[in-house]
Every structure is written in structure tokens, then in C-alpha cells.
Amino acid sequence: MVESLTSVWPVWPFARRRLLVRTVRFGPAGFAGCLARIVAAPLKLGLTALLVSLVVLAAGCGKSKPPTPTDWANGVCSALSTWKTSMTSAVDSLQGGNITTDTVKSAADDAKNATNKLTDDLKKLGKPNTTAGAQAQKTVDQLSAQVSDGVDTIQTSVEDISSVSSALTAVTTISTTLKTIQADITAAYNTLSKLEPGGELQQAFKSAPDCASFRSSQ
Q1: Contact call for residues 202 and 196 (beta carbons, < 8 A)
Q2: Which regions of the chain are under pLDDT 50?
Q3: What is the 3-state secondary structure (H, E, C) of the chain?
């Protein structure tokens, strides 16, 4: 019985001896139990190896390469351009005498939402893969904080609006704050574009398509 089964299901030499001993001592039941354990052993080892491989692959998938200088520059300029477009739309909604409690609060909410998107987009960029990467990321983080603080000021100015008069006061605050933020953005761009003179990052800001509008305004 042992020879016939082992000819159908290959068994390692050391396992053949074990099968014969189990069969002699315990009969067919012993043979079946031993064979089951022998078959299960490589399956367990195979499952363990598979799990280890999956863990390694998962760890690798969780890591992403830092962006190239050009990708990073495009990402920064694109995020800032999107924010400026949203701010322009918010301010335009207050033009032509269309100033009410609701329109002012709505503009402030739009500014807050746009700023949340800006800070999230800039944070996702991480640090560019270049010599001045750490300084570039620090500059962007500082700008994010400045923009967030400015929009918080705008939000505070509209919280207690109860009349057209107070709405007009809030609009003045919004206008002044946005001018300050615009100056912060310009300063940050100038700093970023001058890092690594003659290096990859500076070249990236000079050639990145999404930074064209910033280059033309300098």
C-alpha cells in the first residue's frame, strides 16, 4: 500500500521511512495521518513564504519616490494658480454692489475651502528631489501657514456680520487680507525660483509650464 501511494504522490526519502514505521505500528490510520502531515508541511511553508512576500510588496507600495524638480515646480505653481482663480471668483461675487450678509459670508467660505485645498495640495508634494529640497519645502510650508492665517482673519471678519454696514467693513478686511496674501505668494515664488542658482530647481521654475503666469508677472 505504501509503495502504490508513494508512486502516485511523490514523497521525500526521509518521509518514506516515516510512513513505513507509522503503517507498521498503527496500520492504515497511522499511514493516513502521517501522510496528511507530510503533505501539509510544504503547504504551510509555501503559505508563510507567500505572506512574507505580500508584506514586503505592501511595504514597497507604501513608499513613493520624491518628485523631480520640474514636477514639484509644476505642482506648486498649479496649486497656487488654482487658489488665485478661486479667490478671483470669490471677490468678483462681491462686485457691482452685490454686497449682502449672505454674499460676503459665501465669499469667505469659498476662500476657506480654496485654502484648505491649497494647503492639502502643497503638503502632498512633499520635498523635491534636489539639493535645496529641504529649503524649498520649508518655504512652501511657511507660505501655507501665511495663507491659512490670512483666511482665518477673513473668516473672523464675517462671523458677526448683521447688517450691510458690517458687511462693507468685512469686505474691506477681505480685500486688505487678500492683498497681503498675494504679496506672500509673490515673495515665496521669488524665493523658490532663486534657490540653487544654475541648478535643477531654478531651471525647473524657469521652464515649468504651470509657472508661466508667475514668470510673466515678475
Answers
A1: yes
A2: 1-26, 30-31, 34-36, 38-41, 43-45, 47, 50-62
A3: CHHHHHHHCCCCHHHHHHHHHHHHHHHHHHHHHHHHHHHHHHHHHHHHHHHHHHHHHHHHHCCCCCCCHHHHHHHHHHHHHHHHHHHHHHHHCCCCCCCCHHHHHHHHHHHHHHHHHHHHHHHHHCCCCCCCHHHHHHHHHHHHHHHHHHHHHHHHHHHCCCCHHHHHHHHHHHHHHHHHHHHHHHHHHHHHHHCCCCCHHHHHHHHCHHHHHHHHCC
The mean pLDDT of the chain is: 78
Query: For residue 145, what are the CA distances in angstroms to 56, 118, 139, 179?
Result: 37, 11, 10, 16
| Grid cell in block for residue 14 | 526521509
The number of residues making up the chain comes to: 218
**What cell numbers appear for 170 in the block?**
468685512
Q: At what angle do helices 101-125 and 69-92 cross, to 10 degrees?
A: 180
pTM surpassing 0.70?
no
Scanning the structure block, which residue is given the C-alpha cell 491659512? 148
How does 65-95 read in b/e, with b if 16+ C-beta sit within 10 Å? eebebbebbbbbbbbbeebbebbeebbeebe
